[in-house]
Automatic annotation (TrEMBL):
InterPro entries assigned: Asp_de-COase-like_dom_sf, BFD-like_2Fe2S-bd_dom_sf, CT_Nitrate-R-NapA-like, MoPterin_dinucl-bd_dom, Mopterin_OxRdtase, Mopterin_OxRdtase_4Fe-4S_dom, Prok_molybdopt-oxidoreductase
Pfam families: Molybdop_Fe4S4, Molybdopterin, Molydop_binding
Presence of keyword Oxidoreductase: yes
UniProt entry keywords in alphabetical sequence: 4Fe-4S, Iron, Iron-sulfur, Metal-binding, Molybdenum, Nitrate assimilation, Oxidoreductase
Organism of this sequence: Piscinibacterium candidicorallinum
Name of the molecule in the record: Molybdopterin-dependent oxidoreductase
Gene3D superfamilies hit by this protein: 2.40.40.20, 3.40.50.740, ADC-like domains, BFD-like [2Fe-2S]-binding domain, Dimethylsulfoxide Reductase, domain 2
Protein family according to the UniProt entry: Belongs to the prokaryotic molybdopterin-containing oxidoreductase family. NasA/NapA/NarB subfamily.
4Fe-4S Mo/W bis-MGD-type domain segment(s): 6-62
Cofactor: [4Fe-4S] cluster; Mo-bis(molybdopterin guanine dinucleotide)
Keyword Glycoprotein part of the UniProt annotation: no
Domain of life: Bacteria
PROSITE patterns from the UniProt entry: 4FE4S_MOW_BIS_MGD
Length: 948
């Protein structure tokens, strides 16, 4: 099929809550490319690095080896998974649920779903759980990211209704970004912030974050508060507003209640006390307050830094208090705007797909609301007792209260905190059903029954983004293998159960996703999220915001414009709640405050982004970042392996110095689960995170854990870089993981080696691993000793170097005959200094430089290359593969203003001109790298610097 004949399908991105429109180009069999939808109001054609590479996650050679394509069952947990028919799998699921309910009651079943499900999927599972099985035990991984925002909105505004829209960014005069690295977590929204700043140079940006992130580095004012002190900060700001008369007394008196109690609460939050507790300057506190209160309109953008806390509800409410006190809500450019983490966390909240919710923002504790839902579903009553939330559900499984877990489109064996307890739960619970599209998640190894589901490119339905905008998700490709839609699997299990139990025979007989959505739409009638004025046909024409009632033509861009709120009195409520220190306290035994967060180019547990090797180029391997002074006091150097230990567990990984945080703090990226990072007895980053939960929202405190960091003396090391075909990548990774279970430390990640896909493996152990393990690793890496492998071994020192050399232009075949040759794989093992040659040998792989004349010199070791070679370095621009060394070299040659130097850099290398995700980092490098003197400048190529 020619390029002109390609089909274009409009759909939505499956990553963050921005909800970008995507146009997928395909031939009906394969997606050949994606671009942003210029007509979608969430992104106007922009995509971030993740969205721009979506098509690479669906390539046939990738999908065939990374997907679950057939149902499977085990006779027992330790037995291999056996392929079965769908009828057999569905019968078994229904039988196990029916048997569990009969023996232990409906509350012995727990269903754990995901913010990446479509609204139709969410609705089907919610109805199955609450209307048929008869329990409220359904919760979602959105509990880990958005439940404190929900609770904060309900406590203050009376309902879970985000009052703002993205267009408010264009109207704001002050942006107050709190607990969000928007540049990484919501890159396309950050492009909109950049555009707003360019259009309005007077726009002020304040960032509240313990770390100096890319977002904080570009702010006009950065408040680097100590972790967990947000409530004290906001109360201190309100104290100043009261002292300076920077409040809207008319709005407070007419539209709110509870202000006097809050005034009393903040009386002691003096600037001096706030500065002491939060660790910030009083002058910065005063300036932030002045801008927020007097330069408006002010729009607050906030995310996991507030939500993922044992006091997250009150952090949200304390920030909303500032908007109510200054009357900055319901107006263009003003309001508290919670940014959703997942693509359809909002849709899950709408349908009530959480343990404490009913559909359409109905209240579980309200008898009238329960009666409405029961009547609609045709049942006597909905369960009255709140179900188990995420952390509680797995603890109940660990202690034997829950006997069956059905896990859908999420990977709790990575994402939940306190992984030791989670793995105990998954090992203990009698039945685990896993429904997923991908084969890599660690949770799958505990599954008794596996149900293959359709992923992004094959799903049809709707999602709701952060600004309450509902978009159509359209299937681009037909389901691969035997995969089925999530809503359909739920419906078929429900019909099987209904037949066994003789009730609700017709309640789940939906013909398609539109039928599911139409039923859900009717259930919203008369509620604050009423969408009875919408239809699939309307959404096909353009995305719409709720509420949009029957008879209306368009939804509401912002809420509460009339000053009336969804409380019994119609008034917004101030919440008076004192500051509480973090739950997991730092002390002499655990002296560092660890926080977690996102990488720019990765998503959650890497089930999807992990299929694209080039998305690892910006942050290629796991590490813990620490303040350089803290490293010095512990005798740590860059790259040293350390044990990170908390009160719950430990993880081993390399340490790196960072000036992004002050002394006493550390940072790890959330994405590194045990599929990519391991060691004996560890389960990835969340081995150490805290499972303390907010008593209101039940959200865990993933953003703060008290840890200690100590250097490890693991004397034996190995590093391997191996090129491979995309079709071989996932099977090779799976095989390697199975060989690493008893190693003290390992990191195994996809990578790009020149223009090829590849694998990087790092290992460290107290002693040299047994020879059979090393032999198996050599085979799996295509580096087993043979006649065509260059090999050096020093048995006395335990040093070994292996290089596979192939014909130039070949990615994997052995070199034969004469002509140019290139290195395609390397293995270095032994004591630490045995890895000294890694840098230049890796560069030979990256550049495909001819090594045919170097011979034994390649095996000499040491840190100096035998001939000059170009060092590629870490990629800053993942779209075009532009490295940091190349950027620094260019900037060293360019003079002028910061804007002129950035323009010159982009003219030469085009970095930052596609998705734009790297722009904040490019701007930072422009300020860091000063032009060199006219004499002695060494020109460097796009691949990096020359070394010898």
């Amino acid at each position: 099929m020619t390029a002109a004949a390609l089909i274009e399908t409009r759909t939505t991105c499956p990553y963050c809550g921005v909800g970008c429109g995507v146009i997928a180009q395909h031939d009906g069999v394969q997606i050949t490319g994606v671009r942003g939808d210029p007509d979608h109001p969430a992104n106007f054609g922009r995509l971030c690095s993740k969205g721009a590479n979506l098509h690479l996650t669906t390539l046939p050679e990738v999908a065939q080896t990374s997907r679950l394509l057939t149902p499977g069952m085990r006779v027992e947990r330790s037995a291999p998974m056996q392929t079965v028919s769908w009828d057999s799998a569905l019968d078994s699921v229904a039988e196990r649920i029916a048997q569990t309910v009969a023996e232990h009651g409906p509350d012995s079943v727990g269903i754990y779903v995901s913010g990446q499900l479509l609204t139709e999927d969410y609705y089907a599972f919610n109805k199955l759980t609450k209307a048929l099985i008869g329990t409220q035990n359904i919760d979602t991984n959105s509990r880990l990211c958005m439940s404190s925002a929900v609770a904060g909105y309900k406590a203050t505004l009376g309902t879970d209704s985000v009052p703002c829209s993205y267009e408010d960014i264009d109207h704001a005069r002050v942006l107050f970004i709190s607990g969000s690295n928007t540049a990484f977590a919501h890159p396309v929204l950050y492009r909109r912030i950049e555009a707003a700043r360019a259009a309005n140079p007077d726009l002020k940006i304040i960032v509240v974050d313990p770390r100096r992130t890319d977002t904080a580095a570009e702010a006009d004012l950065h408040l680097p508060i100590l972790p967990g002190t947000d409530v004290m900060l906001y109360q201190g700001m309100l104290h100043i507003m009261l002292w300076e008369s920077w409040i809207d007394r008319v709005f407070i008196d007419a539209r709110t209640e509870g202000f006097d109690q809050l005034k009393a609460q903040v009386r002691n939050a003096t600037p001096a006390e706030v500065a002491r507790v939060c660790g910030i300057d009083q002058a910065a506190l005063l300036e932030a307050t002045r801008l927020f209160a007097t330069q408006g309109p002010t729009l607050s953008l906030y995310c996991q830094g507030l939500n993922q806390s044992a006091d997250g509800t009150h952090k949200n409410a304390a920030l909303i208090n500032l908007h109510l006190a200054t009357g900055q809500i319901g107006k263009p450019g003003a309001g508290p705007f919670s940014l959703t983490g997942q693509p359809n966390a909002m849709g899950g909240r709408e349908v009530g797909g959480l343990a404490n919710l009913l559909p359409a923002h109905r209240d579980l504790s309200n008898p009238a609301h329960r009666a409405e839902v029961a009547a609609f579903w045709g049942i006597d009553e909905v369960p009255t007792t709140r179900g188990k939330t995420a952390v509680e559900m797995f603890e109940a499984a660990r202690t034997g209260q829950i006997k069956l877990l059905w896990i859908v489109c999420t990977n709790p064996a990575h994402s939940l905190p306190n992984q030791q307890a989670v793995h105990e739960a998954l090992s203990t619970v009698p039945c685990v059903i896993v429904q997923d599209a991908f084969a890599s998640p660690a949770t799958l190894r505990y599954a008794d029954i596996v149900l293959p589901a359709t992923p992004w490119a094959e799903k049809d339905g709707t999602v709701t983004n952060s600004e309450r905008r509902i978009s159509r998700q359209r299937a681009v490709l037909p389901p691969m293998g035997e995969a089925r839609h999530d809503w359909l699997i739920a419906a078929q299990v429900a019909q099987n159960l209904a037949a066994r139990w003789g009730r609700l025979q017709r309640g789940f007989a939906w013909a398609d996703s539109e039928a599911v959505w139409n039923e859900w739409r009717e259930l919203t009638r008369g509620t604050d999220c009423d969408i009875t004025g919408m239809s699939y046909a309307m959404l096909d024409a353009a995305p719409q915001q709720w509420p949009l009632r029957e008879g209306e033509a368009t939804g509401a861009a912002r809420l509460f414009t009339d000053g009336r709120f969804h409380t019994p009195s119609g008034r917004a409520r101030f919440v008076a709640q004192g500051y509480k220190p973090v739950a997991d306290r730092v002390d002499a035994q655990f002296p560092l405050a660890l926080t977690t967060g996102r990488l720019r180019d990765q998503w959650h547990g890497l089930s999807r982004t992990g299929l694209v090797p080039k998305l690892f180029a910006h942050a290629p391997e796991p590490r813990i970042e620490m303040n350089g002074a803290d490293m010095g006091r512990r005798g740590l150097r860059e790259g040293d392996l350390v044990a990170v230990e908390s009160r719950r567990g430990r993880q081993v990984l390399p340490v790196a110095a960072s000036d992004a945080m002050r002394s006493g703090q550390a940072f790890m990226a959330m994405h590194w689960g045990e599929e990519y990072l391991g060691g004996a007895g560890t389960h990835g980053v969340n081995s150490v995170t805290s499972d303390a939960i907010d008593p209101v929202s039940r959200q865990p405190e993933l953003k703060h854990a008290a840890v200690r960091v100590s250097k490890l003396d693991l004397s034996w090391r190995l590093v391997a870089h191996v090129t491979c075909n995309l079709a071989d990548l996932q099977p090779r990774l799976a095989e390697l993981r199975s060989l690493l279970l008893e190693v003290d430390y390992w990191a195994l990640v996809p990578t790009t080696l020149g223009e090829s896909a590849g694998i990087t493996l790092r290992m460290a152990n107290a002693t040299r691993p047994p020879q059979p393990v090393l032999d198996a690793l050599g085979i799996a890496l295509n580096l087993a000793p043979d006649a065509r492998l260059l090999r050096y071994a020093d048995a006395q020192r335990g040093v070994e170097r292996r290089l596979r050399v192939v014909a130039q232009g070949s990615a994997g075949t052995d070199a034969t005959g004469s002509g140019a040759r290139a290195i395609s794989a390397l293995w270095l093992s032994g004591p630490q200094d045995a890895l000294d040659a890694e840098g230049w040998l890796r560069s030979f792989i990256d550049t495909r430089q001819d090594v045919s004349r170097l011979g034994a010199a390649l095996l000499a070791g040491g840190s100096q290359a035998p001939v000059p070679v170009q060092v590629r370095g870490a990629a800053v621009c993942s779209c075009l593969g532009v490295s940091e060394p190349a950027i620094r070299a260019c900037l060293a040659e360019v003079k002028g203003t910061a804007q002129e130097r950035l323009a010159a850099l982009q003219a030469r290398h085009h970095c930052g001109t596609q998705c734009g995700s790297c722009l904040p980092e490019l701007k930072r490098l422009v300020t860091q790298v000063q032009p060199a003197k006219a004499m002695g400048v060494v020109s460097e190529s796009v691949s990096g610097s020359l070394v010898k």
